[in-house]
Design brief:
The protein has 424 residues and is α/β, with parallel strands linked by helices. It has two domains: 2-265, Spore Coat Polysaccharide Biosynthesis Protein SpsA, Chain A (Alpha-Beta Complex); 291-418, 3 Solenoid (UDP N-Acetylglucosamine Acyltransferase, domain 1), CATH 2.160.10. It is built from twelve helices and 29 strands. The strands form six sheets. Strands 15, 16, 18, 20, 22, 23, 25, 26, 27 and 28 form a ten-stranded mixed beta sheet that branches. Strands 1, 4, 5, 6, 8, 9, 10, 11 and 12 form a nine-stranded mixed beta sheet that branches. The longest helix is centred in the middle third of the chain and has 12 residues, at 233-244. The protein is globular and about 70 Å long. 44% of the residues are buried.
Length: 424
């Protein structure tokens, strides 16, 4: 069954809520965990489940995503698998941008139906962190004789209004409401008894079943449902499908995080560095671009609950609850707490450093005696000496010179420069 399946990963959104991390890159290309990209999660889940025909649908800032995918996922000539990107394109039939998730799939029907023997289409999101064996979902889909299966997981009241909520009867979805906010609607969609019976040890605050945005279609069903002008799976396609099709609800109770906001992205990355993380890169096989970098070097450092990726140099630095990306340079006396340092795309040569210093430009990395708290330092940033980056005015939202504040978190964007003594 897995060989007759093609996977579509939706990454076409502009990613406004992740700005400025999406200022120069698409959302699936945003770095996570120090050395990976968001797109690596759904791709790895697919490959580990035996689904090796993968198309990524995108339309905004796709250059870095193209480069990453081309470098990371190369199959040999004797392998029938592939990972390719389908950017939005103008054709005789379609002249505009994708208008939603369903519209993006509709405009690429000719691409994924051109492969022989495709019987199922697995549709995933490009901005979620989780581990799932899709073979179990396929087994459920077959056993229930579903036309379409939606993966669902229990959630609490805080999260409920941000997702599509479902009710199940005999394994089939009978109700689906996208992001309900009214108390009466939320109350009617509660599945408390079913959740307690299915997951006895689950958090007692979880009363609802939420769609994870993971869909498995029989290809004929998908083509039929996309014949009209629907724009979005959650708002239109799924609610319409439950009236005429067998729509199964596959239950999932593992770790799953939608990192669509700066705060959720920051929080998820810091959790990777915990002693017992909910999502553990040491236990989950996640693929990415192999960089062949030297080991990291430490001198007189104090590091607690942190991850430091290869190619980094740390000199008498102090880290706490921090993720440090590849090729990061932290000079003497740097203190970093609850932050993400994304590192650099290249090593800076000594001649380049000398040339920049003559112009008063700091080296790539973090300068001496700089303090960083609750921040995200994007790639290739140049932070000078004696800087303080800690949101001193406790702002929730602000756009400054070479920095941004979102959800109380300071973001230094890609390629930005902060001169010596800067205070944010």
């Amino acid at each position: 069954m897995m060989q007759s399946t093609i996977c579509l990963i939706l990454g076409g959104g502009q990613g406004k809520r992740l700005f400025p991390l999406t200022k120069d890159r698409s959302k699936p290309a945003v770095p996570i965990g120090g050395k990976f990209r968001l797109i690596d999660i759904p791709i790895s889940n697919s490959l580990n489940s035996g689904v090796n025909k993968i198309l990524i649908l995108t339309q905004f800032n796709s250059a870095s995503l193209n480069q990453h995918v081309n470098q990371a996922y190369r199959f040999d000539n004797f392998h029938d698998g592939f990972v390719d990107i389908l950017a939005a394109e103008q054709t005789q039939e379609n002249s505009g941008w994708y208008q939603g998730t369903a519209d993006a799939v509709r405009k690429n029907i000719k691409h994924f139906t051109s492969f022989k023997g495709v019987k199922h289409v697995l549709i995933l999101s490009g901005d979620q962190i989780y581990t799932m064996d899709f073979r179990q979902m396929f087994r459920y889909h077959t056993e229930t004789k579903s036309d379409l299966t939606v993966s669902v997981l229990p959630c609490n009241r805080q999260d409920a209004s941000g997702f599509g909520l479902v009710r199940l009867d005999g394994g089939m979805i009978t109700d689906f409401v996208e992001k309900p906010t009214e108390d009466a609607v939320l109350e009617s969609l509660k599945s408390t008894e079913f959740i307690r019976k299915t997951f006895p040890q689950i958090d007692r605050e979880k009363h609802w079943l939420a769609s994870m945005g993971i869909y498995l279609f029989n290809v004929e069903t998908l083509l039929e449902l996309l014949e009209n002008d629907t724009k979005d799976f959650g708002k239109e396609v799924i609610p319409s499908a439950i009236k005429t099709k067998r729509v199964g609800g596959y239950l999932f109770d593992g770790y799953w995080e939608d990192v669509g906001t700066i705060h959720s992205f920051w929080k998820a990355n810091l959790e990777f560095a915990q002693r017992k993380p909910s999502f553990d890169f040491y236990q989950n096989q996640i693929y990415t671009h192999a960089r062949h970098l030297p080991s990291s070097r430490f001198d007189g450092c104090k590091i607690d609950e942190s991850m430091v990726c290869e190619g980094s140099i740390l000199d008498h630095s102090t880290l706490s609850r921090t993720v440090v990306g590849v090729r990061s340079i932290l000079q003497k006396g740097v203190v970093v707490e609850s932050s993400i340092i994304m590192g650099s795309d290249d090593f800076e040569s000594e001649s380049d450093r000398a040339h920049n210093r003559e112009k008063g430009i700091p080296d790539v990395g973090i300068g001496e005696n700089t303090l960083i708290k609750n921040a995200i330092i994007d790639k290739n940033a140049r932070i000078g000496k004696n800087c303080k980056i800690y949101n001193k005015n406790q702002l929730d939202f602000f756009d400054g010179p070479n920095y941004y504040i979102r959800d109380h978190i300071v973001i230094i964007p890609k390629n930005a420069t902060l001169p010596d003594g800067s205070e944010v």
